[in-house]
Write a structure and sequence with these properties.
The strands form 2 sheets. Strands 1, 2, 3, 6, 7 and 8 form a 6-stranded antiparallel β-sheet that branches. A two-stranded antiparallel sheet has the order 4-5. The protein is 3% helix and 45% strand.
Length: 130
């Protein structure tokens, strides 16, 4: 999968006892209502791990980037004994995007300008009740 957004910030690198390293970061992926122009908030948290942490080198606040990622989810046991669910957006590639050539996708699709045939033609009502 891929997502384009404005880089906001990266968290600290977390290192676990096993040596596994992970770093989270945030993208502003807002969309805009094509009829009103109003923004629709969409703040997403991604992560890079292991050697891929270096993908964040050179990425600065307010850079427009496209991230390529996989979604990973798992069940886990909470401290109180109940089950929980976690999921991560694991990034494997980050590309800079030229703002001059970028147009965000509208979040609302335009309504058709013509009505479908079923609405414009008389349809015989063959139902046995009114």
């Amino acid at each position: 999968m891929e997502q384009t957004g404005i880089f906001l910030k990266a968290g600290e690198i977390k290192t676990f006892d096993s040596g596994f390293k992970v770093q989270e970061f945030y993208l502003d992926c807002r969309t805009y209502n094509q009829f009103t122009g109003e923004p629709i908030e969409n703040l997403l948290k991604f992560q890079v791990s292991g050697d891929r942490i270096s993908l964040l080198n050179g990425v600065k606040k307010d850079d427009l980037v496209k991230v390529h990622f996989n979604i990973k989810g798992k069940l886990y046991e909470k401290e109180d004994g109940t089950k929980g669910h976690g999921q991560n957006l694991n990034v494997w590639k980050i590309e800079p995007v030229d703002r001059r050539n970028y147009t965000p996708e509208p979040s609302v699709k335009p309504e058709p300008t013509t009505k479908p045939a079923a609405e414009t033609e008389e349809v015989e009502d063959d139902l046995p009740f009114n």
